[in-house]
Write a structure and sequence with these properties.
- With 555 residues, this protein is of the alpha+beta class.
- Among the domains are: 165 residues, Nucleotidyltransferase, domain 5 (2-Layer Sandwich); 194 residues, Palm domain of DNA polymerase (Alpha-Beta Complex).
- Helices cover 30% and strands 29% of the residues.
- A hairpin with a 4-residue loop joins strand 27 and strand 28.
- Helix 7 crosses helix 12.
- About 1% of the residues have low confidence.
């Protein structure tokens, strides 16, 4: 039996004119018949006969499910949110609307390639009109709509078969949840791994993100490397599985500890530290004197690099390499797959440790009759549904933050080793090494992979850089500033301290539609500049770690 799917098409992305759906190996569609015709509600009435069905749409959380929610609310229907807008449950007929992007993690075209199903058809969305206006183009449009529904259904079917074959599970709402359920079913039951929720504050204090640092702001003839599936390559280590308990401090034993450290002057600091700036914090790898909680893997590595570590309190748990076989299987599946499917397996493997580290404090969306007055926070025009914080709750059977702590710590240790091996390093970001030196590469998990060569590179700040490749093309990474392509001269000016401002006129169909509804948009402005603060001390070219004395920046 095929997986039920649906797809909503709209003029200018905001005026629905057609809904296609595929269920029980048959395709159906609802087209807008005239002005005022509620195509979404007509679709919902048509599928209401499929009691307890579970329909998927790609990117539903950000698009299709918003139309579904709006129509159900307007017609007095009650909805339950199983995973925010990513999974809506229509209470009456018990029909769910799930987002397949949360499950597959790739665009639909890539999913078609991954699972060898007929690819998406092309359709120019600026030609989407009311059905009676498309005339001879209508059959092409409806065939495009049908292909989206059928191809998505076949892709999910094929993924389901692979999951059943290799892990004995079917897809869940998200790829993360599917991954952890697969691990629970095929390898280690989660009930055998201690949750250690009574020690969670200490564990969370020892969980840090990846290293992202600028070491030199300009370089020539650089080699860019990434570590192959960095986090999954660390699944071969022992991870905490038993109940945590206090023990007498011993640097050669234990699982995590609170420690006071003295990091000598060195170019790359070995320990992560959260630097507080008002109500915010930023991750740095400083030198000097500071105190915190760390995984013992990271503390022992710091000692080997010359750091003076004084353990203040220490926790210990039994540890086992329970993730190793999971990583080996996922890696084998990746190598046996085409490139697109290999990317899905890569995400599948990565999301396991991410799910272990998920926060317990979550948000839920509830009907107004199920919430208190002080939780008032409407998310729809009729003020029927509201987002609330659920607080610390027990609906977290798969959260094991100590495992996430260990994997992240091991990944930072291995990443640091690559940076020190590179010696003349310019930039790093979680699993990358940008250096003038040639480094050995390989095909196994955890080996370096050669990415590209840069004749020139400009590193303005974290996730903000540009480089000229071998063909002379300028490429840029400007997280948060994706609307304008900078020139090489722009990067040079920004590195010198100059601010560059740009204004963007909002044009096209969106502007016309919104202004037609009485919404007028101001000019959008961006200013590109060197960041006022970073996790290292910026010099003209070279940078150095921030130095701390008793946890405070040394002046």
């Amino acid at each position: 039996m095929s997986t039920p799917t649906f797809d909503i098409e709209a003029m200018n992305w905001v005026e629905p004119i057609a809904v296609g759906y595929y269920i029980n190996d048959e395709y159906g569609q609802v087209l807008k018949l005239h002005e005022g015709y509620d195509v979404i509600w007509e679709f919902l009435k048509e599928i209401s006969k499929f009691k307890s069905a579970r329909f998927y749409a790609h990117n539903a959380a950000n698009y299709d499910n918003k139309f579904i929610l709006d129509s159900l609310v307007r017609h007095g229907q009650e909805v339950k949110f199983a995973a925010g807008l990513g999974s809506l449950l229509w209470i009456g007929p018990n029909i769910r609307f799930d987002d397949s992007f949360l499950l597959l993690g790739q665009k639909l075209a890539a999913c078609c390639e991954a699972f060898d199903v007929p690819r998406k058809l092309d359709w120019p969305h600026d030609q989407t009109k009311n059905p009676w206006e498309m005339k001879s183009r209508l059959p092409t449009f409806t065939e495009y709509l049908k292909r989206d529904c059928v191809s998505l259904s076949e892709a999910i079917d094929n993924f389901s078969r692979l999951l059943l074959k290799h892990f004995g599970v079917t897809p869940s709402v998200t790829l993360s949840l599917t991954s952890v359920k697969a691990f629970d079913k095929r390898f280690t039951p989660m009930q055998k791994i201690a949750s250690n929720d009574g020690f969670e504050a200490f564990i969370r204090a020892a969980i840090y993100g990846g290293r992202n640092e600028v070491y030199k702001r300009y370089g020539e003839n650089l080699h860019f490397y990434d570590v192959r599936r960095m986090y999954m390559s660390c699944y071969d280590v022992n991870v905490p599985t038993g109940p945590l308990r206090w023990r007498n401090p011993d640097i050669d034993k234990g699982t995590l500890a609170e420690a006071s450290v003295k990091v000598p002057d060195m170019h790359i600091g070995p320990l992560p530290y959260r630097m507080q700036e008002g109500n915010k914090s930023r991750l740095a790898f400083p030198t000097g004197e500071f105190q915190g909680w760390w995984d013992m893997v990271e503390l022992r590595n710091a000692v080997s690099k010359g750091v003076d570590v004084t353990l203040l309190r220490q926790l210990e748990a039994d540890e086992q390499p329970i993730l190793k076989e999971f990583a080996e299987l996922v890696d084998r599946l990746s190598h046996e797959s085409n490139e697109a499917l290999a990317r899905i397996w890569k995400l599948f493997g990565l999301r396991l440790s991410g799910k272990f580290g998920q926060r317990r404090n979550q948000r839920e969306i509830r009907h107004i009759k199920h919430i208190a007055a002080d939780e008032y926070n409407p998310i729809d025009d009729q003020e029927v549904y509201h987002e609330v914080y659920t607080g610390n709750h027990s609906k977290a059977p798969y959260i094991r933050p100590a495992i996430s702590m260990r994997i992240r710590a091991e990944a930072r240790v291995r990443h640091l080793d690559y940076l020190l091996q590179a010696d003349d390093v310019y930039y790093s970001d979680t699993d990358s090494v940008y250096t003038t030196n040639r480094l050995p590469v390989g095909e196994k998990l955890g080996d370096l992979k050669y990415v590209c060569f840069a004749t020139k590179a400009y590193f303005v700040g974290n996730k903000f850089y540009g480089f000229v490749d071998e063909s002379g093309l300028l490429k840029q990474k400007t997280a948060g500033y994706r609307d304008y392509q900078l020139s090489e001269g722009d990067f040079q000016e920004i590195l010198k301290g100059k601010e560059l401002s740009f204004a963007f006129e909002r044009v096209g169909n969106w502007k016309q539609v919104l202004e037609g509804k009485g919404v007028f948009l101001d000019e959008r402005r961006f200013t590109y500049r060197r960041p006022p603060s970073t996790n290292r001390v910026m010099g003209e070219i070279e940078t150095s770690p921030i130095k701390l004395i008793a946890g405070k920046v040394a002046r």
